[in-house]
Amino acid sequence: MGTNHSYYRWLTQSTSIAPLVTFRVLFGAIMAISMVRFISKGWVSEMYVDPLYYFTYTGFEWVQPLGEWGMYSLFALLTLSAIAIMLGFYYRWAATAFFLGFTYVELIDKTNYLNHYYFVSILAFLLILLPAHRLFSLDVWQQRVQPLQFVPRWTVTTIQLQLGLVYFFAGLAKLNPDWMLHAMPLAIWLPAHADFPLIGGLFALPETAYVFSWFGALYDLSIPFLLLWGRTRVLAYFMVVAFHVMTALLFPIGMFPYIMLLATLIFFSPQWHQSVLQKAARFFKQNPFAGTATSGSHVSLWTQRIILPLLALHFIIQLLLPLRFLAYEGPLFWTEQGYRFSWRVMLMEKAGYVTFHITDPKTQRSGEATVSDYLTPNQEKMMATQPDMIWQFAQFLETEYQRQGIADAEVRAEAYVTLNGSGSRPFTDPAVDLTKEAQLASNYSWILPFEL
Amino acid sequence: MNRIELTVLPQKPLPNKVRAFGFSNGLHFRGPLLLVLCAMLFVVSCNSDDDGGGDPMDDFDRAAMLENVGTNIIIPRYEAMEEATTMLLATAQLFEQGPDEVKLNALQDAWKNTAIAWQSCSPFEFGPASDQLLRTSVNTFPTNQMQIQSNIASGNYDLTTANNIDAQGLPALDYLLFGLGTTDAEIVSFYTTNASSPQFKQYLLDLVTAIDTKVRFVNTSWPSTYLAEFKSNTGTDVGSSLGFLVNELNFDYELIKTAKVGIPLGKKTLGIAQPEKVEAFYSGISAELALASFRGIEQLYRGMDAKGNNGLGLDDHLSSLGAKYNGGSLVEAIDAQLALVASTLAPVPDPLSATIQNSPNTVDAAYTELQKMIVLFKTDMPSALGVLITYQDNDGD
Questions:
Q1: Is the link from the previous residue into A322 a cis peptide, with omega within 30 of 0?
Q2: CB–CB of B47/B204 below 8 Å?
Q3: How close A230 gets to chain B, by Cα (Å)?
Q4: Contact of A324 with A361, CB cutoff 8 Å
């Protein structure tokens, strides 16, 4: 218990609130921009209004889109709550609203799953628990809360740890033969950018894909530590900038690089954050650090006794989720069982084509389903390589044919998938009637082996 | 209420400006950097050894491929299409002025030529063609007899509205020129003795004019404005020229597989054939059109012009990337499958609607090969080229 105790003391030591405050402001700002961008690209309609079918998550089937008016209102609410987070305006409510709203949207359809959306959900959840509004906020200015100079260290460590886990697991995931020994999928993706200004010629070289792969893996594994350590922090941040700027230029990954560029500033020293806030405050002709009791208390022990165990539980889950793939036979990239929620980013060039064969058991007549009648091109594309979505859609087709008067239709999937330049090969057993297969089978017996 | 013991933050004096930004001792960084550099050198040296210095990607010039496809394939095909529609319009005008069987036959021939010319333009639904909704307006089938008849009866119609999409274009003309009666004399009577003959003539002329106008616009836009944009847009993302080519080639190829063959064959109706849903049902040249469409896509893929000169195409791009297919080369796999499609599709006799009923196995054999081809076109090819197969813009991760 002795070590526990000292670790507890370390976590509860006081540190400047400044890093937390900058994080709050930047996170709110970049989220507001992200939401406006999402709306202006027409994605709200494209992803959450137009589709006729949604790939729900197990246990979250009740999460359904809210209709055109409802979805746009929800995104408006998300934008406003992001702004409120930035301003520290009814902050806890704003963070809660943003977390619930954002997560709801993400749970509507697996098609749209992105690791960075999951990351945003997690950060929003953590922000609900952190007192990031206790300085430099409207809540303080309008005297809804007492200002704080100091917070317990765990408040800042929480975000640092979460970021570190994201990078570290992303790095671990890269330690596989495809990535390290064959530079896949970068060996496919980089030559596609041979027309890149100035250095485009380099992308055509096979060596470049290896350098990028190895650098990427080393970067992900080491960057949390390099950022933590004061001596390497500046260089580490230059690496963060170089890495994320590069990925932003080369790959269609939206806001993620910018979110990471801002989020990793949490690793900078309290002094740096204080000076940033002071400069920002000068703009408002205020001193954020003036007039607050430097010896004043912060989070009550009572609160900590609830929040710290909650955070501990959160991080245990965070440690276990990316490892759950070990419970399945795999190969992971082929079956994707335990793939999501594990910080596996940019690991696969995977494309597929799936045809659903329908048989009426009574007449023994067979035909194909017209998938495009039900799915958007993007849903169709995402489904073609993800077994759980193929299974899910097969169940939907059974009910759809039921509606058309064919009882107990048999649905078989004939799918072909190419993975990291392997060449397309049979993906699903076309003899298996998926309507008779259980969803939660620990291993899908109807996925054909990857090796030919 | 309990209070946490406060430890005062170590507020060391900040000696200089650099430290104020937290960049303390930032330059004392050696180990990891050296590690990274060594790893990079290691990888580069290892890899260049077993690669033998031969770099397959160096020599592919995507801009040159786009130049070839734009200048030698797309533009000549639109020119041929405009020639066909010009002829179609001229014969339609002659027919309208004095309908008889001879003029009908001339008009029918002009229609067939236009329908065949269209097949090779159909995969280019981007840029000016997309602005004109060319594919939808020219070739949405099966056509809607009821809508055509009601338009003619009312004499009041707007071809740009959504409900008239299947009452216009080549399929509607197919009906008006071949399907109104069983003999030519019977068909001509709709334009001569029928009570609504002026409206029939007007509708016919309106449809032909609409096609001609759109084709003329696209054919003019390509060399004058769009070609330059097409050639310079050398990326691989959504909205790049390569992205357009690959996606639209696939879209058009799926039309052969599904609309031209699969649906009539009963693939979407649990095996119950729907022969009346073939393209060009009334003229009965469906199989010929399907084969023309396939040949058009094959030549586009190879970068081959109408005279058979083989320039830079998608096949060359795939070769340059060394794209693999289950141990062999992807280009060879595609070649082999293209040959199989051709050898099963070419022998399918017209009229396809009759063949589907009399000899469904012949058509089914072609369908099976068409289906196998699509896997190579739609998964292997885009994947090897690094092109996103999507008609939608969205983020990845």
A1: no
A2: no
A3: 6
A4: no
Task: Tell which residue, B287, B314, B232, has the closest CA to residue B115.
Answer: B287
- The whole-number pLDDT of residue B394 equals 66
Instruction: Give CA–CA dist B169/B213, Å, rounded.
Output: 12
Nearest Cα residue in chain A from B7:
A14
Residue A281: how many CB atoms within 10 A of its CB? 16
CB contact under 8 A, A423 and B272: no
What does the alpha-carbon distance between residue B168 and residue B206 come to, in Å, rounded to a whole number?
9
Contact residues on chain B for A417, CB-CB shorter than 8 A: 379
A114:B395 CB<8 A: yes
Task: Return the SS3 of A367.
Answer: strand
Over residues A222-270, the pLDDT tens digits come to 999 999 999 999 999 999 999 999 999 888 888 999 999 999 999 999 9
The span from the CA of A380 to the CA of B247, in Å, is: 14
β-bridge pairing B328-329 and B324-325: antiparallel
pLDDT digits (tens, 9 = 90+) for B249-272: 999 999 999 999 999 999 999 999
Distance CA A203, CA B60 (A): 13
Residue A31 CB-density burial (10 A; 0-12 exposed, 13-18 middle, 19+ buried): buried
Confidence at residue A199, expressed as pLDDT on a 0 to 100 scale: 84
Residue in chain A nearest B44 by alpha carbon: A207
Residue A299 has what pLDDT? Answer: 66
CB atoms closer than 10 angstroms to residue B130: 15
Q: How confident is the model over A359-411, as pLDDT tens digits?
A: 999 999 999 999 999 999 899 999 999 999 999 999 999 999 999 999 999 99
Inter-chain touch A297–B44, beta carbons under 8 Å: no
Tokens of A399: 């009910």
Question: A115-129 and A91-108 are packed helices; what angle lies between their axes, rounded to 10 degrees?
Answer: 150
Decide if A367 and B266 are in contact by the 8 Å CB cutoff.
Answer: yes
Is B325's CB within 8 Å of A234's CB? no
Best of A210, A294, A302 to substitute, by most chain B Cβ atoms within 10 angstroms, is A210
Are B70 and B99 in contact by the 8 Å Cβ rule? The answer is: no
Name the CA radius of gyration of chain B, rounded. Answer: 29
